[in-house]
Structure formats: structure tokens, C-alpha cells
Amino acid sequence: MSAALPQVKPASLGKATVNKSSVLDSPRWVELRKLEWTDEDGKDRLWEVASRKTTSKGGIDAVAIAALLKHPSRPLSIPIILQFRPPAGGICVELPAGLIDESETPEVAAVRELLEETGYGGEAFEGRIKVVESGGTTPSDPGMTTANMKLVTIEVQLKEGEEEPKAQLDEGEHIEVRVTPLKELYAHLQAYEKLGYHVDARLHHYAAGIDIAHRYLS
Amino acid sequence: MSAALPQVKPASLGKATVNKSSVLDSPRWVELRKLEWTDEDGKDRLWEVASRKTTSKGGIDAVAIAALLKHPSRPLSIPIILQFRPPAGGICVELPAGLIDESETPEVAAVRELLEETGYGGEAFEGRIKVVESGGTTPSDPGMTTANMKLVTIEVQLKEGEEEPKAQLDEGEHIEVRVTPLKELYAHLQAYEKLGYHVDARLHHYAAGIDIAHRYLS
């Protein structure tokens, strides 16, 4: 259905593997809960749900960041990240994202995670980082989990000739950043899929929205 | 940050409530697994993950449907649904979606779910329903679960004067359909949030992509 896909460079993350999967009895981070609920007809019913044990004080688990990189002479771009995710058993393509630390606001967490995972932020970008939108609190998969998140949009003003910044990763964290033209995001994600990577559903929907707007609404 | 929000009608779903949440020992639908994995540095590590026990033979849990309603004289629209979701403890706003039945392809499941949840499909729409895109297999929340899904885009050709079809819900299923102009989807979701509803993260990202395309790329 698509034209030729863009050339994307495979990850050079090194090799990681899942060796064994077993049923877990004493979870530390995640738990299963039984919800007893009453439906619209007054009938008592049960629902099984997975929850994080670490939800922030504000009741929001995580933020994802759509960072719009505004360059004087290049097309508007967005940094996406590649990382091995054990639940997917392979490399995932995602927006920069992370859990909200205790007592952080979602916006502060978004600015911090963007700096840590991509390098955009900190002193070098003083006055050139602006949170332009903070979305509602959205459940990630409300049929199955209580996990929720906020999508925060941040504008980053770049300068001509400026080098791509370095991420500030923790030891043992392996992430690769790919700055991608926003207009071609959907085609790039398709190209990463061809390499066998798993595109996060939320990033896929974001790119599909951009693509649909071009094809049906312009 | 936004202009006046559109008027959206509150759901008339009736009242449903979550009465109790307790730790679950013998789950039927969901389970917690421990993954033993080796990271890129060769270090053995653990990851906790929630999985559905019901993943389809094809290895894909679910489909969501972006149904583009093409009307001769009205703007391009998309049906979204309102339903009470116990994990969110309230009414969620989502794309039509559902689990893939055994031996169904994702595209067949998408056409079936669209008919069941919104009424678009079946004999009355013979020859006017077309699957135009079937996205990759995308993990819904790859830091926490193995759940995955496909976004399927379906074009529906409407006729002038045609009435909105009736959903074909199972007994005990309570869903309301809202046909929403695609161009205004993001503003409508913000209006539903003001009513206290929870917008699914994937639908939010889809609408945010459409909105970003308008504001930054046109």
C-alpha cells in the first residue's frame, strides 16, 4: 500500500535476549488485582487488572514526550528512541518516556526525561525548551491495566550548525536516539518494522494521525 | 491553551461502579510473569510483566479500528465509543476495538468489531466497507505488558440521508457511539475530558497527531 520506504539505519545497541519466562508469585513492581464492580444493569461482575505498585503521588504513572525540533533550515523533526524491551522480546521504537518520580509534576518529568534520554535540555538549551502542551491523563490499555500516562509536547529551538546533543543515560541503560522528520514519521516507523523492531502502539497512533491528516484532510 | 471546546453530549450509559479492589491469586485472564533476560552488557537481569492468557493464534491480542466515514456532503468523520472501564474506574473514550477471536485475521476481526460496536458493516453496507490499511503489530505498553494490537483503517462510504446504524451489542455490553469530525477530534477529546471521562492513550495520540499536522505541517 506504501511507496518505497525511507532508509533507516539499524540499531547498534548490542545484543540483549530474554532467556526464560515463568509465572511470578511475589511481584515487586506489578500486581494483579480483582475488581468487583456493578454494571449499568445493576449486575455484580468481576474484572482482572494489572497495576503498577509505583504510581506517583499525583496518580499518574508516566509521561511520553513529543519533542518538536525547530531548526532554522531543516524540516520540523521529532526524536524517537530505540531500546530493547524484555516484554516485547526485541527492540522497540518509542517516544522518549519515563515514570514520574515522587513529587514531580508531569511537565517537570517530561523535561527531565527528554534531557536524559535524548540530550535535548539542560544548560546548553537554556531558554530554548518550551512545554507547549500537556495532554490529559490517559489510560494506556484500559481493558487490561490501570496504567496511565500524559503526552507532553515540547518545542526545542535549534541553532544552525549545532551538533546533536548526547543523551545522559544511567549505567546499564541502552537507548539510541533517531531524529526523524515529523512529516515522514509514519514511513520511518514502517521501515523500522521491516527491520523487525516493535513500534509502540501510542507512537504508531501518533504517526498514523499525522499521516491520515495529510492524506484525507489537507 | 485551547479555544472554546466543542459541545459534547454526556454519555447516557447509566451508572456503573467499582466497589472493591483486592489482590488476585488465581487469575483467569491475566497473569504476571518473570522474565529472565541478558542485557547488552551481558548482565543477567529480571523484568516483571503482565500478559493476557488469551493471545490469539496469530500472536496478536487485539485490533482497534479507525473507521473513516465518507459522507457526500458532511466532513470526514470517525466513530469513537464511550464505555465504562473498570480498570479506569470510569467512562473511557476509545476507538472501536476488541480481542481477535481464534483463527480470525486481524482485518476480519476489525470488520466484525466495527459492526458489533458501531453498526457500520453487514448487509446494509455491502460493497461500501473497505479495509485501506492494516498497521504493524504494536505493543500497547511495552514497559509493563506483553499485550499488543493492530490499528486497522477502514473506509466507510455513506449515502445522503442515511440514518446512523444501530450497534449490535451483546447482552450486558454498554457502549455509546459518537460520530466525530476527524478534523475536530482532538478538541472533542478535550471536551470529553472536561466531563471527567478517560481518553484512551492510543486514541489521544492519534488525535494529537492530526492536531500537530494541522498546526505545524500545513
UniProtKB/TrEMBL annotation, chains A, B:
A GO cellular-component term linked to this record: nucleus
Any GO molecular function: ADP-ribose diphosphatase activity
Pfam families recorded for this chain?
NUDIX
Question: Which BP terms does GO give this entry?
Answer: nucleoside phosphate metabolic process; ribose phosphate metabolic process
The protein, known as: NUDIX hydrolase domain-like protein
- What residue stretches are annotated with the Nudix hydrolase domain? 58-203
What Gene3D superfamilies is this protein classified in?
Answer: Nucleoside Triphosphate Pyrophosphohydrolase
Query: Which domain of life does this protein belong to?
Result: Eukaryota
Record's keyword terms, sorted = Hydrolase
InterPro entries annotated for this entry? NUDIX_hydrolase-like_dom_sf, NUDIX_hydrolase_CS, NUDIX_hydrolase_dom
